[in-house]
Amino acid sequence: SYIMALGNILASIEEIEPQIGWLITFLTSVGLFRLLILLVYWLIHRSDALLALYHRNRFIKGLWTYSYEANDKRHVGIWRISQDVSSLSITGYGVDAAGKMNSHFRSISQPFEHQGVDEIMFARTDIASADEHYSKSTLYIDPLSCRSWLSGPTDIRAQSVLYGYDENGVRHAELVLQRAEKGLSEREVVERLMADARKVDLEKAEGQG
Description:
The protein is an alpha+beta fold.
């Protein structure tokens, strides 16, 4: 092997001390490069700043709010996105008009690229009925919404197709996701989300009046 061959060559050179020979062998070995690669991956995994630099305009780790309208009703909720070097997962929940959880969901696949956009599969459970639905969401990440190289995008548009029970084939064509403000607790994010939803409903009622 490379290590044995290099070790024999260095051992035959009397001017090189055994300790120096071992150091040269180690520094030029494949094992060192593997350790360096593992170290880089570990550092990126531990640091959101390095992770943002690695993913750049595809860094979407963090807390997000979503909203969409269906059947003349506004629906809102939370996405929690976990992301590392090679994988991404999403959990979240919807909230009703009183700010209480009415559904929860989780991603059941990794994002896969299809015709230039990212798609991901979800399983969703309605709390009241306990019915489980599935959906496929298409994500349109806005790269121009990056405020800095550390923040990643702040806006995502999405479309979802639902599968299962009476919602089979239903399409939610306009989901709006926004990155939650840093420094806020999840409870505070939900409170602000509900306040914004009530404001939209009030403006809509006044417009119809």
